[in-house]
Write a structure and sequence with these properties.
A hairpin with a 2-residue loop joins β2 and β3. α6 runs antiparallel to α7. It is built from seven helices and twelve strands. It has about 230 residues and is of the alpha/beta class. About 0% of the residues have low confidence.
Length: about 230
């Protein structure tokens, strides 16, 4: 799958997102405009670095968020390309980046929190072995949730046998799902995470999902569906 170009997600043009091929999987990167020339890049992918210049300039102030342990390598090329960039991650992910890449400094989440406008928030998942972090963007009518590996919305495009394998064994889709890998290995205290996650989506607003793996979910039934799914899996 080749990059199909960045797409504007919200009506205000604050959020842009793109899908691309990453090893054997399809992944997604998302850019959030924080101010006139400052941007947050959620799970930056090396494959779509050049195309990002459609949205941002080389002298832009970038904050590169590695949102989980498996989403760190793209930060290297972005950090090298943009001189005014900083890599940020949770305390669980920071040692992995320092050990596996040549990046010399990774800032804590507090660095990012200080630079966020009031309508953008970061959310570190409790009891998460993968160190996952979500970002929420509150617009006039909806809250957009950018998530990493904790929630997927995928439909596997493969042979019947491979499709059965991914969906029945790994539980990658179809549609909104929590993979078996995340359920059994990602969370150490399921009751704590269940209460926390359901509380995030029980906000009385329309919620939209922007997952790293799968399609954006912007239907009116999303809130109830995700609350039911989290309650069922955890």
């Amino acid at each position: 799958m080749n990059s199909t170009g960045w797409k504007k997600v919200d009506e205000g043009g604050v959020i842009y997102s793109i899908e691309y091929k990453a090893d054997v999987a399809i992944s997604r990167s998302t850019i959030i405009k924080l101010s006139e020339d400052r941007y947050l890049v959620y799970s930056p992918g090396a494959a779509i670095l050049e195309s990002a210049l459609e949205i941002i300039s080389k002298d832009s102030d970038l904050i590169l968020l590695a949102p989980a342990k498996a989403h760190i390598l793209g930060t290297v090329s972005w950090n090298n390309e943009f001189q005014k960039s900083a890599v940020v991650a949770s305390e669980t992910v920071i040692p992995r980046i320092l050990n596996m890449t040549e990046i010399a400094e990774v800032k804590e989440l507090s660095y990012l929190e200080e630079k966020l406008p009031r309508n953008v928030r970061i959310h570190a998942l409790p009891a998460c072995r993968l160190g996952e972090v979500w970002v929420s963007v509150d617009t006039d009518d909806k809250i957009y949730w950018i998530v990493c590996d904790s929630i997927t919305n995928s439909n596997v495009n493969a042979s019947i046998v491979a499709k059965w394998f991914w969906e029945k064994i790994y539980r990658v889709g179809p549609g909104l799902e929590v993979t078996r890998g995340f359920r059994y290995f990602g969370i150490s205290k399921k009751d704590v995470y269940r209460e926390w996650a359901i509380g995030k989506f029980s906000n009385g607003r329309d919620n939209v999902l922007i997952p790293c793996h799968g399609d954006i979910y912007n239907e009116s039934n999303f809130t109830q569906r995700i609350i039911d799914l989290i309650g069922k899996r955890f």
